[in-house]
């Protein structure tokens, strides 16, 4: 087993790694060969008086709840407390073009050959190559080495569209909901599926925030992880919510979402009974939420992510408030989020579409 | 239907013979195929006698058989790669598995021989999940499941009616692509099965395919015939055309389509540059049809696959007939196919797909 060689730090100055944590950042030691060149944004959840030690040698900024309150003032109400949903604060304060976010219980996985997987490098590859949402390619991502478009794939669709999201997967502890965890406590994901693919336009998916990359300039404002945790009736639906909003907006704006490689090694199985309490309402609510997202349409005038998101918030309030009062609060928080985003990112709007081809 | 309830006698393996000597092909497949009944359809344009090794339960159909069943004027529908559709027509089994005669068994990443029949049957007898994407792919595979956030009401899935397999070595590329990358061979065995989401279109390759005969058979037809169609896959487009129709129809009827495993190993054959010198008609035609397929809608009154095909033929004539005469011919062929399916074929599909 060769010692990991320093990878080419692609997009070193254009990518931030956002990590929510409430415990410690020991996991960073294993990621050091891959993460050290990059700037980290640590979002410390929970008790702000606790000191989170960041391993030596990393360039980082750290925000705790006091910082969030100070920076956002009353708008801080849109950022969850006591839930990893708080990570989206990191997305908001970043000044970079790309974000990679990872949970603090995720480690470096190995390919079947035994080689360590540089997850960040794969996410970058995914984000820098086009997506193909309008027609499914049976050999999956045609831009990966060794693959291509198959016979019958229309040539006019082979240029693809810009990729906004790269959704990675997990070996070992799978991202199951509480009922599934309770029924299958021993199940581990051992299947390494060597593929990346674009999720077709019009298709929704459950987005997991554990191992996620995205183009902040293209889709950042849609990556709001909702109101979860302390004082909220629901948890473990933060990334789901962000994913559904993001996919609808990506479909509307002609942007692509990829899923598949890279894998990380998910080490910690959360307590299924605790999870059940958090998810309980979500399991019922999602039966209404999904048809809502499947049928929602955004008007042509929504040409920026922010405009799309505000419109979505309006529709959430109009159509989901009958499900629960929570959605009224959430819709308001969605608006607050956009206001805060625009305040902290004054150039705003959807960035010039890769006009300068700023990729290394 | 549960996989354990499937008997060998529920399955027909349909082989279109475009080459006369099937000895090495069938001998290589013997460990997998010998349990099943084979329908071998000889390309009516092939002059030589077929050479078939001993030990297979099989039935051969040649040009006279085709003419007798469908009439001499219809025989053109079944030439070249399209000859296999005659096999679909005359089969009486529940499931059909069809593999090109230049494909051999593949090996997986552990070096084990892949049994595509078993895998296709597994695909067809476990539900498909077209309405919501599962990020761990087919949740009915051992070791997988639905992930967090997957709506519970969608977890029973729908019947999978079509299973599209893949190819190692010579992938199913078009001529321009293979000509541009003459050395490129597909060596990536991707351990994946997934449902193609509803409303997503895909190119369905006929090289390695399996389906529930009554549900999907009427929607797989040799209708789009290129003016200079040839005896190499990249000189044809009929499977792509019928596959797209089949997907629209499956979406409409609430049936599922899976893609991924199993792989077969496809032998090197043909010179893509030679093929490129012929017309690019297939490539050009695909450009015309995409907007059509993306927007075509079938009426609620179409509840059987045959009805859906008839409606599609109508739409094709109305919206594509003026684009290129080949589409009018395709519409005619689709209607002719439905007639043949009802008269020559056995059994019509149940409304809404059982």
UniProtKB/TrEMBL annotation, chain A:
This is Uncharacterized protein. It comes from Pistacia atlantica.
From TrEMBL, chain B:
It comes from the Eukaryota. This is Uncharacterized protein. The lineage of its organism: Eukaryota, Viridiplantae, Streptophyta, Embryophyta, Tracheophyta.
């Amino acid at each position: 087993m060769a010692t990991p060689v320093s990878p080419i730090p692609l997009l070193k100055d254009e990518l931030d790694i956002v990590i929510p944590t409430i415990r410690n950042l020991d996991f960073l030691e294993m990621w050091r060969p891959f993460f050290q060149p990059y700037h980290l944004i640590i979002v410390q959840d929970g008790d702000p008086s606790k000191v989170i030690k960041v391993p030596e040698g990393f360039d980082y900024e750290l925000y705790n709840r006091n910082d969030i309150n100070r920076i956002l003032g009353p708008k801080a109400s849109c950022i969850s407390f006591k839930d990893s949903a708080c990570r989206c604060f990191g997305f908001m304060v970043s000044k970079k073009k790309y974000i990679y976010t990872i949970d603090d219980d995720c480690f470096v996985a190995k390919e079947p050959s035994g080689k360590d997987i540089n997850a960040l490098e794969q996410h970058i590859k995914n984000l820098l190559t086009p997506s193909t949402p309008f027609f499914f390619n049976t050999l999956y991502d045609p831009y990966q080495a060794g693959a291509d478009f198959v016979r019958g794939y229309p040539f006019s669709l082979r240029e693809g569209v810009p990729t906004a999201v790269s959704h990675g997967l997990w070996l070992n502890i799978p991202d199951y909901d509480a009922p599934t965890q309770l029924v299958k406590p021993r199940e581990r994901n051992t299947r390494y599926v060597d593929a990346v693919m674009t999720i077709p336009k019009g298709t929704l998916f459950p987005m997991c925030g554990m191992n996620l990359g995205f183009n902040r300039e293209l889709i950042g404002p849609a990556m709001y992880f909702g109101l979860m945790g302390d004082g909220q009736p629901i948890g473990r639906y933060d990334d789901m919510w962000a994913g559904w909003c993001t996919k609808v907006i990506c479909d509307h704006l002609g942007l692509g979402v990829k899923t598949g490689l890279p894998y990380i090694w998910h080490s910690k199985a959360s307590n299924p009974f605790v999870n059940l309490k958090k998810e309980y309402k979500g399991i019922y609510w999602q039966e209404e939420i999904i048809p809502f997202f499947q049928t929602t349409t955004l008007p042509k005038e929504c040409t920026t992510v922010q405009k799309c998101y505000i419109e979505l918030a309006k529709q959430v309030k109009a159509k989901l408030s009958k499900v629960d009062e929570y959605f009224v609060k959430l819709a308001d928080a969605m608006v607050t989020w956009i206001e805060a985003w625009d305040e902290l990112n004054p150039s705003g709007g959807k960035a010039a579409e890769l006009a300068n081809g700023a990729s290394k | 239907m549960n996989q354990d309830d499937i008997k060998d006698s529920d399955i027909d393996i349909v082989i279109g013979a475009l080459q006369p000597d099937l000895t090495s092909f069938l001998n290589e497949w013997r460990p997998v195929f010998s349990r099943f009944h084979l329908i071998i359809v000889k390309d009516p344009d092939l002059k030589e006698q077929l050479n078939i090794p001993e030990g297979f339960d099989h039935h051969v159909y040649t040009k006279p058989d085709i003419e007798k069943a469908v009439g001499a004027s219809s025989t053109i529908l079944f030439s070249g790669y399209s000859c296999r559709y005659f096999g679909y027509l005359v089969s009486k089994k529940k499931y059909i598995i069809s593999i090109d005669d230049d494909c051999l068994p593949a090996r997986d990443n552990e070096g084990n021989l892949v049994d595509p029949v078993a895998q296709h049957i597994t695909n067809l007898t476990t539900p498909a999940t077209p309405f919501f994407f599962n990020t761990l792919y087919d949740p009915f595979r051992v070791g997988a499941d639905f992930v967090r956030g997957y709506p519970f009401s969608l977890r029973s899935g729908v019947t999978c009616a079509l299973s599209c397999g893949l190819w190692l070595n010579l992938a199913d590329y078009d001529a321009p692509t293979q000509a541009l990358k003459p050395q490129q061979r597909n060596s990536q065995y991707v351990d994946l099965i997934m449902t193609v989401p509803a409303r997503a279109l895909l190119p369905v390759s006929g090289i390695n395919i399996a389906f529930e005969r009554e549900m999907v058979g009427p929607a797989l037809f040799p209708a789009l015939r290129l003016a200079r169609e040839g005896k190499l896959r990249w000189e044809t487009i009929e499977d792509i055309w019928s596959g797209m129709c089949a997907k629209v129809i499956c979406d409409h009827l609430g049936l599922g389509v899976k893609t991924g495993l199993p792989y077969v190993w496809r032998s090197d054959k043909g010179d893509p540059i030679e093929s490129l010198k012929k017309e690019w008609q297939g490539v050009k035609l695909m450009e015309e049809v995409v907007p059509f397929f993306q927007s075509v809608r079938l009426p609620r009154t179409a509840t059987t696959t045959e009805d859906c095909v008839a409606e599609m033929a109508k739409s094709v004539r109305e919206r594509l007939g003026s684009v290129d005469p080949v589409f009018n011919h395709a519409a005619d062929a689709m209607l002719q196919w439905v007639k043949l399916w009802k008269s020559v074929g056995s059994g019509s599909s149940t409304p809404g797909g059982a």
